[in-house]
Design a protein that fits this description.
The protein contains 3 helices and 6 strands.
Length: 120
């Protein structure tokens, strides 16, 4: 049997969609607080609300939405990326989760929601 992880509540139908900031915040919070007994907060925001303030505070943020494909030029699709900084012109610097796809500037696409996780 696989060790439980934060995605279990999503897979088990506790939250609605893997591409939703709410679902991932719910899964991360449940896994950290209930299962691991870690004092933490997980929350989500619609669109790009509070992303800049988190990045300025040195906290990465998971962005969800219709984003440029990391594998095919000119294509977009539902995806999640981790934003961890800002470019000189103010765009998010992100990691797509694929080898060689980090430190990319996200200068197009639509962010639908974002998730934050904070240890207390």
């Amino acid at each position: 049997m696989a060790r439980p992880d934060f995605a279990d509540p999503i897979r088990d139908g506790r939250s609605e969609s893997v591409f939703s900031g709410l679902a991932v915040a719910d899964g991360m919070g449940y896994h950290a607080v209930v299962r691991l007994k870690i004092n933490a907060d997980a929350w989500y925001n619609l669109l790009s609300l509070n992303v800049d303030s988190a990045l300025k505070a040195g906290r990465p943020v998971i962005l969800f939405g219709s984003l440029p494909s990391a594998l095919a030029d000119g294509e977009k699709g539902n995806h999640a990326v981790v934003a961890y900084g800002k470019s000189e012109d103010g765009h998010n610097i992100v990691h797509y989760g694929y080898s060689g796809k980090s430190a990319l500037v996200l200068n197009s696409g639509t962010v639908a929601s974002n998730t934050h996780f904070l240890l207390k």
